[in-house]
Write a structure and sequence with these properties.
The complex is a heterodimer of chains A (259) and B (129). Chain A has 259 residues and is an alpha/beta fold. In chain A, strand 7, helix 10 and strand 8 form a beta-alpha-beta unit. In chain A, helix 3 packs across helix 4, helix 5 packs across helix 6 and helix 9 crosses helix 10. Chain A has 2 domains: 118 residues, no CATH class; 127 residues, 3-Layer(aba) Sandwich (Rossmann fold), CATH 3.40.50.1860. In chain A, 45% of the residues lie in helices and 11% in strands. In chain B, 51% of the residues lie in helices and 0% in strands. Chain B has 8 helices and no strands. In chain B, helix 3 crosses helix 6. The radius of gyration of chain B is 15 Å and the shape is globular. Chain B starts with a helix and ends with a helix. At the A-B interface, helix 9 and helix 10 of A face helix 5, helix 6 and helix 8 of B.
Amino acid sequence: MKVSYFPGCTLKTKAKVLDYYARKCAEVLGVTLEEIENWQCCGGVFTTSTDEVATKLSSVRALMNAKSKNQPLVSVCSACHNVLKQTNAQVKNVADFDRAVNNYIAPDEYHGETEVIHYLELLRDKIGFDKIKEKVVNPLTGRKIAAYYGCLLLRPGKVLAMDDVENPTIMEDFIRALGAEPVIYSFRNECCGGYIALESKQLAKEKSNRVIENAKGKGAEEIVTACPLCKYNLEKNGCADIPVVYLTELLAEALGVKE
Amino acid sequence: MENKNNVCKEIIRRSGVNPRKCMKCGKCSGTCPAYDEMEYHPHQFVSMVETGNIEPLLNSKSIYRCLTCFACVDRCPRGVEPAKIIEAVRLTVVREQGKNHLKPDQIPELLDDDLPQQAIVSAFRKYTK
């Protein structure tokens, strides 16, 4: 199976390992991630206002590129995924926005046809956690891993539509498929502070610490995330004293391709 | 007065939110991760935009405290989506000439070796035009 792939700015720089193992594990599972040619940064966060058009065109171009190949568009960074999925939904559902976007991209046309999925959805819905379980050669037996969803992976729920926003299971099922034990804790879908790290270190510190303390209080020995900014906040502002790893690192370990 | 009403109308139009749906339960503010650092809280944004009391919001640092985490959007029992109102107020400010909240020359001193690019582009997206 071939899918279109949008890596995003941070996966080419500070989070190379997230990208590297995403591709490597996909190959092991029989999927090729075809990087979109000349993709441009998604902008990191979605602007909800429907009169904000130009800043969303980079996402529209990536969506159009995937459409031209008749492939779903996959990303692994929570932020890229959130922006691409919300932009796609806005083109599809808001007539004024669709019209403005199509003025910019004429003579091409785009109306939200592309299926946008996160890497976790690729694993769950296109490959299947049961199939992944069969491919595990190094089960992570006995490890207590807390899934950190943060905010961008799940919300807004009616657009992202990946899982139950308040009681998600996709990452816990992923952890189980790799042979480890998921740790359920209250703050797994609460914000780490995100980009406020640039504006108020104090706020980022408070938000990240309450996530770490809550996870540790429930017995977590490591935390898994899909988002480079979550990882940064938990490690640098939250002073995490347990490992914070990317989901693709765990997957690579279990599939026996971690270097 | 005329101008103030126009600003409010524009904010409501831009946000796509109907503030009159709000039943003032305060759940948005209760779930807001930035609550402690906000002078005006999400439920107040909704109410102040509805009543036209917009000046205090335009001049408050609260508009830069929203983390775009969408917690208030998903947890509002009436589907009001307060984050969209806060964003529409912030855009009203930063779209004015010279009103960018973050300037490129501030960036070098904010950098550290691990800071992901994602943090910088997100902050620019939210704090500038």
